[in-house]
């Protein structure tokens, strides 16, 4: 049913071979006529197979780029009402702006290929079917399981030329999926695309083994819910001290990493010195967690023995633990204070203090609690 009940098409006479009416859009009303409506043989149902469209000058100008498509849609419509609804939706899109495009439905061969593909891979692996703004099927999400039993949601997006052209692919991995290889020498299919995704997933099995070991056996402060594509971890060492690192090469996830320290100097300096002294003990064959514990001379707190909220320090300015999905990342260097702050909160605080000074993008001032020197980097 049309949202605007001012739109209508009614028979011009008892023969019913032409309809006249209005399509309304906001304050606008456009005149139109559908002609050459014929009854189907041996039925009372009217056929639009040879129908034509006549419009007023303003509507004709609006429909000029789409007239051939609109005429085909009219001739394939099941009823006058369904065509009027489709025409109304098209006009709404045109008025919204040039980003809207009237798209004719894909050919039957497109849907036949998609259905054959899904039958081959199995409907049980399909998580979701996607449609475009016009309701046309243009993609799907498929669940894949890698060789280590991990589940991955993979999205495939097809255009109307599929399977002649390859789909685009999206999957949560630490390195981008290369473009799918689509050779005319090999019959293209969704299974062919899935095989390439599976091969790409196998590249990162050791990366996920290493980070799964960390996620299970350490108190991970950030990210709160790591994705399969995330290479960063921030790990708690004690309530006021944590470290952060990124795995630089997901293909070589056991290599030495650069560590960023969070905590005041009194607590961090001994740990940093121990790490530098023990770098020669790093063993590329061991997992990242074991190497870090060896060179730091510590054992990471385990989720089994320490609650994560023991390390959930609140910001000394906004009094929240998490702000814009970030936890406090700046600590006062005074051992007697050691208050934690979000970098953005501390920066805003220091910028509001007249005695603060700025140099090379960093603002220098005093801790809001102990008045000891503290700094924050600008954006």
UniProtKB/TrEMBL annotation:
GO BP annotation list: interstrand cross-link repair; protein monoubiquitination
SMART domains: FANCL_C
Cited PANTHER family: E3 UBIQUITIN-PROTEIN LIGASE FANCL, UBIQUITIN LIGASE PROTEIN PHF9 FANCONI ANEMIA GROUP L PROTEIN
Domain annotation RING-type: ranges: 315-371
InterPro entries associated with the record: Fancl, FANCL_C, FANCL_d2, FANCL_d3, FANCL_d3_sf, FancL_WD-rpt_cont_dom, UBQ-conjugating_enzyme/RWD, Znf_RING
Organism: Aphanomyces astaci (Crayfish plague agent)
Highest taxon of source: Eukaryota
Phylogenetic classification of the source organism: Eukaryota, Sar, Stramenopiles, Oomycota, Saprolegniomycetes
GO CC terms: Fanconi anaemia nuclear complex
Keyword annotations from UniProtKB, A to Z: Metal-binding, Zinc, Zinc-finger
Record-linked CDD domains: DRWD-C_FANCL, DRWD-N_FANCL, ELF_FANCL, RING-CH-C4HC3_FANCL
GO molecular-function terms, A-Z: ubiquitin protein ligase activity; zinc ion binding
Name used for this protein in its record: RING-type domain-containing protein
Pfam families per record: FANCL_C (PF11793), FANCL_d1 (PF09765), FANCL_d2 (PF18890), FANCL_d3 (PF18891)
């Amino acid at each position: 049913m049309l949202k605007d009940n001012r739109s209508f098409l009614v028979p011009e006479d008892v023969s019913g071979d032409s309809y006249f009416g209005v399509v309304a859009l906001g304050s606008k009303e456009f005149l139109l006529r559908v002609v050459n409506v014929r009854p189907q043989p041996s039925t009372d149902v009217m056929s639009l197979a040879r129908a034509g469209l006549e419009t007023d000058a303003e509507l004709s100008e609006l429909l000029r780029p789409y007239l051939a498509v609109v005429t085909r849609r009219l001739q394939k419509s099941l009823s006058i009402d369904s065509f009027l609804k489709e025409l109304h939706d098209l006009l709404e899109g045109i008025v919204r702006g040039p980003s809207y495009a009237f798209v004719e439905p894909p050919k039957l061969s497109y849907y036949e290929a998609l259905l054959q593909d899904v039958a081959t891979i199995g409907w049980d692996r399909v998580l979701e079917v996607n449609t475009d703004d016009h309701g046309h099927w243009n993609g799907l999400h498929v669940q894949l399981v890698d060789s280590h039993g991990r589940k991955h949601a993979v999205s495939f997006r097809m255009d109307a030329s599929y399977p002649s052209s390859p789909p685009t692919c999206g999957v949560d991995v630490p390195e981008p999926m290369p473009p799918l290889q689509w050779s005319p020498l090999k019959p293209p299919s969704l299974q062919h695309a899935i095989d390439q995704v599976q091969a790409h997933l196998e590249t990162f099995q050791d990366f996920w083994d290493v980070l799964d070991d960390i996620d299970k056996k350490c108190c991970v402060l950030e990210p709160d819910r790591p994705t399969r594509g995330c290479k960063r971890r921030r790990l708690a060492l004690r309530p006021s001290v944590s470290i952060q690192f990124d795995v630089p090469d997901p293909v070589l996830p056991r290599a030495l990493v650069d560590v960023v320290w969070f905590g005041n100097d009194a607590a961090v300096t001994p740990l940093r010195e121990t790490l530098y002294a023990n770098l020669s003990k790093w063993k590329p064959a061991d997992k990242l967690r074991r190497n870090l514990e060896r060179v730091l001379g510590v054992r990471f707190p385990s989720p089994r023995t320490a609650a994560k909220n023991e390390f959930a320090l609140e910001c000394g300015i906004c009094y929240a633990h998490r702000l814009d999905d970030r936890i406090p990342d700046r600590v006062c260097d005074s051992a007697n204070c050691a208050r934690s702050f979000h970098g953005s909160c501390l920066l805003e605080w220091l910028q509001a203090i007249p005695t603060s000074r700025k140099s090379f993008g960093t603002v220098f001032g005093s801790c809001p609690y102990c008045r000891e020197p503290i700094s924050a980097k600008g954006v």
